[in-house]
């Protein structure tokens, strides 16, 4: 599914984010930037040890923050590590919004033209996919309607169920 948002394209795909050929992919990171399971595990396996080494030098960031490393051996040139909240820790919605917004802003600052997001916080961190879709899509659409050089933002959803939830939400957002 593909829609226009401002002068950019917003696209939903179902698949493995480590296969994406966007300039950057977003990692669903933790605040210590230790690549664990889920998206981070796939990035570590396919991207090689260099990404964790770069994360170690950065040392960490706040929940809701985003930092950049190279993409190692991945097809994407960069990985933006966005720290989402764990379900139950408090202020999850605002933190997820910030993680999305800070990733988009960082991409713009670094002249990145295309970026792919996973459904941050909805795996190991246990946040509901429906609420994630609402927050991440609304934040992205609002951002793309403002000043940006981003040409394409992709949401790469793992499995049909997550894809359907995001697709239904995107339809609601675009019919508002
Ligand atoms: N491509 C796209 N989406 C994926 C992939 C993939 N290869 N693998 C999983 N997903 P998660 P979190 C989906 O757990 O909840 C790690 O240990 C998955 O189905 O990657 O933010 C980190 O190091 C889910 O919908 O991230 C952190 O400590 C979504 O991506 C912690 O987990 C996010 O799942 C972060 O937890």
Write structural notes for this entry.
The chain is of the alpha/beta class. The chain has a single domain (2-174), classed as Leucine Aminopeptidase, subunit E, domain 1 (3-Layer(aba) Sandwich), CATH 3.40.220. 39% of the residues lie in helices and 22% in strands. It has helices at residues 38-47, 50-58, 92-109, 129-144, 160-174; strands spanning 2-5, 8-14, 24-29, 66-70, 78-83, 114-117, 152-157. Strands 1-2-7-6-3-5-4 form a seven-stranded mixed beta sheet, with helices on both faces. A hairpin with a 7-residue loop joins strand 4 (66-70) and strand 5. Helix 3 runs parallel beside helix 4 and helix 4 crosses helix 5. The model has no long low-confidence stretch (mean pLDDT 98). Bound molecules: ligand AR6. Residues 16-18, 28, 30, 35-40, 42, 84, 118-125, 156, 158, 162 line the site of ligand AR6.
Task: Tell me the CATH topology.
Answer: Leucine Aminopeptidase, subunit E, domain 1
The CATH C-level class name:
Alpha Beta
CATH fourth-tier homologous superfamily:
Leucine Aminopeptidase, subunit E, domain 1
Which oligomerization state do the chains in this entry correspond to?
A: single chain
Strand content: 15-25%
Strand arrangement across the biggest beta sheet: 1-2-7-6-3-5-4
- The total count of strands amounts to 7
Work out the helicity level. 25-40%
CATH architecture: 3-Layer(aba) Sandwich
Termini gap: 17 Å
Largest sheet: 7 strands, mixed
Shape type: globular
Gyration radius, to the nearest Å?
Answer: 15 Å
The overall pLDDT, averaged over residues, is: 98
Please mark out the parts with pLDDT under 50 across 5 or more consecutive residues, or reply none: none
Bound molecules: ligand AR6
Structural class: alpha/beta
The H-and-E topology, N to C, reads as EEEHHEEHEHEH
């Amino acid at each position: 599914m593909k829609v226009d948002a401002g002068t950019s394209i917003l696209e939903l795909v179902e698949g493995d984010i480590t296969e994406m050929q966007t300039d950057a992919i977003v990692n669903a990171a933790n605040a210590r930037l230790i690549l664990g399971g889920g998206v981070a595990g796939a990035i570590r396996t396919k991207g090689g040890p260099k990404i964790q080494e770069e994360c170690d030098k950065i040392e960490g960031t706040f929940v809701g923050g985003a930092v950049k490393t190279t993409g190692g051996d991945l097809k994407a040139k960069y990985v933006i590590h966005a720290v989402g909240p764990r379900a139950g820790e408090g202020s999850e919605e605002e933190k997820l919004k910030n993680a999305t917004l800070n990733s988009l802003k960082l991409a713009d600052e670094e002249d990145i033209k295309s970026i792919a997001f996973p459904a941050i916080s909805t795996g190991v961190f246990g946040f509901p996919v429906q609420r994630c879709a609402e927050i991440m899509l609304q934040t992205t659409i609002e951002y793309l309607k403002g000043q940006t050089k981003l040409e394409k933002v992709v949401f790469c959803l793992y499995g049909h169920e997550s894809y359907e939830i995001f697709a239904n939400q995107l339809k609601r957002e675009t019919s508002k």
